Amino acid sequence: MYSVSPLPLLFFAALPVAKTVQSLFGPFVEIIKALNLPNWLVHWGHPGNMAVVLFAMGGYGTYLGFRIRFSDDVEEKAMAKDLHPKLLAGMFFFFALGATGGVTSLLTSDKPIFESPHAVTGLVGLSLLTIQTVLPALFEGNPGLRNIHGLLGSGIMALFLVHAALGLQLGLSY
């Protein structure tokens, strides 16, 4: 895990974006600090919630995607086609929302944001999920995009598994 270089993100962190995010989150971080929540909750709340989203929503959503592609059962395929986009849209929503929890956790612990490989994989993952969300709208005009959608989705899930491992490493580092 240490072979992933945070250098690209260090450049990003040097931009005013990190300071802007810190200032936007400042009042909320002060509220969290004032609540005197248990340290373990502030420290491990984000990873706990995101692990549930990754494995429950992402894992089952990925399984459904494979059922859409490979099932011969018409009824199962119809159920998967209905639930797959809803479940993974929920995953995308909770990952985007969860990023705010991660930033809050770091700022509450007086740690820098956007300076870890975990932050890099999170930003890349959310960007790829955005592209992934658009692809189904283009299926009708280009059925070959279904293959790209499946490969990209599998790649995104692999990236988020790496992201989870990097997050665990980050969490254990302080």
Automatic annotation (TrEMBL):
GO terms for cellular component: membrane. The chain crosses the membrane at residues 47-66, 87-107, 119-139, 151-172. The keyword Metal-binding does not apply. This is DUF4079 domain-containing protein. It comes from the Eukaryota. It comes from Acorus gramineus (Dwarf sweet flag). InterPro entries: DUF4079. The keyword Membrane applies. Keywords: Membrane, Transmembrane, Transmembrane helix.
